Amino acid sequence: MTAVRTAAIRGARRTEVAAVAELLAAAMAEDPLSRWLHPVPEWRLAELRGSFEVEIERVCRPALGAHVLVDPDGALLAAALWTPLPYRLSWLQQARLRTALRGLHGERDPYLQHVSAATFTAAPQRPHWHLLAIGTDPAARGHGHGRALLDFGIARADAEGLPTHLETTEPARIGFYARAGYRIAAEVDLPYGGPRSTILCREAS
């Protein structure tokens, strides 16, 4: 009998940083927050890729908070970025991160800072994991890859006894997270015509 080959979840490798960033950029290109922060369609994918590369390299760090789901041949199907909060970065590392992101976001950087401030005000005020991004290759949607990655991250947080939080500007995603045990903690209307951001939290179980 031939063994059934299935998809697997593992930590992202450092050689995969660019590929993971590209996958997430494609997955989130039409997200309301992405369209608001990156309003020029022709530039959006490149700007998102650059932002995700910075986040993976300096905050999530592969094998710590960057998870990927791959098919039996190793092709990336989905990815999730989890950030441990409070940041496990030195003051200098955080300053360098802010400088890099400011360079990528340009005049939209103050908008992003507003998003961050609103989000972290509603987030658990104790050590926890923040789901920064999760996405599936558009060509591989509809097979439960996103839920598998979400459950994987939740299981780790539960094992550590830590809560998790995330935010979404896509109303259709709220039910997806609710089914995984998340509850709405706050809703924030972003400035300058931005979308509504819903912050969701989940206690460890």
UniProtKB/TrEMBL annotation:
The keyword tRNA-binding does not apply. One of its GO terms (molecular function) is acyltransferase activity. It is an enzyme of class 2 (transferase). The keyword Transferase applies. It holds the Pfam family Acetyltransf_1. Keywords: Acyltransferase, Transferase. Gene3D superfamilies: 3.40.630.30. Residues 7-205 form the N-acetyltransferase domain. Its EC number is 2.3.1.-. InterPro entries: Acyl_CoA_acyltransferase (IPR016181), GNAT_dom (IPR000182), Trichothecene_AcTrans (IPR052523). PANTHER family: GNAT FAMILY ACETYLTRANSFERASE, N-ACETYLTRANSFERASE DOMAIN-CONTAINING PROTEIN. This is GNAT family N-acetyltransferase. It comes from Nocardia jiangsuensis.
